[in-house]
Design brief:
Helix content: 55-70%
Distance between the termini: 98 Å
Mean pLDDT: 81
Shape: elongated
Radius of gyration: 35 Å
InterPro entries: DUF3043
Number of helices: 7
Region (Disordered): 1-76
Pfam families: DUF3043
Biased composition (Polar residues): 41-54
Strand content: under 5%
Protein name: DUF3043 domain-containing protein
Length: 199
């Protein structure tokens, strides 16, 4: 009886604002109360819903098939030099040039393993002269490999700085020197240049 007229007019509006019925259909022109999701978000939500309907066994089988296909693409890329499917450590123009720089030259380090086997056999023979020759040969091989690696690394670093001034060249020289320790036919990715051919 003593309530003010303003409070009586305000009360129904407040009740409407606070009480919402989620079962009532929303008017087409009324605001949604939430932002419209982006297309990428909506697509990812649809994919997640579609994936949840798949059983765990089917999902594991699908993952195995995808992994097998990815490994097969990577294997073919290592043989052909296809940049798209190479491992991350082999990708990029800098790494490709470093590989070509090494593959176009003869390096003593690539014969390290065969020479190590020969030296090991000589050192096992119970003849003092052969053991001394094996030791001397071992020292000569190590010195030659170190000198060849220093010269190759210096020349490659200089060439990379000239050809790729704005590119990230970090680790490229070490990557190339590790490649020289592998025999040419066993290198991966497979050599794409011949000996004597300029990269």
């Amino acid at each position: 009886m003593f309530r003010s007229r303003a409070k009586e007019e305000k009360a129904p509006g407040a009740d409407k604002a606070t009480v919402t019925d989620s079962n009532q259909p929303r008017h087409p022109e009324a605001p949604k109360g939430r932002p419209t999701p982006k297309r990428s978000v909506a697509q990812s939500q649809r994919r997640s819903v579609a994936n949840t309907t798949m059983s765990r066994k089917e999902a594991a089988k699908r993952q195995r098939e995808e992994r097998r296909a990815a490994l097969e693409r990577q294997r073919q890329a290592l043989a052909s030099g296809d940049e798209r499917y190479l491992p991350a450590r082999d990708k990029g123009p800098v790494r490709r040039f470093a590989r070509d720089f090494v593959d176009s030259r003869f390096h003593i380090a690539e014969w390290f393993l065969p020479m190590a086997v020969v030296i090991l056999v000589l050192s096992m023979v119970q003849v003092a002269q052969l053991q001394n020759i094996a030791l001397l040969l071992w020292l000569v091989v190590i010195v030659m490999i170190v000198l060849d690696s220093v010269v190759t690394g210096f020349r490659l670093k200089k060439t990379l700085a000239e050809r790729f001034p704005g590119e990230n060249r970090r680790g490229a020289v070490a990557y190339a020197l590790m490649r020289t320790l592998q025999m040419r036919r066993l290198r991966l990715p497979k050599p794409q240049v011949k000996r004597g051919e300029r990269p």
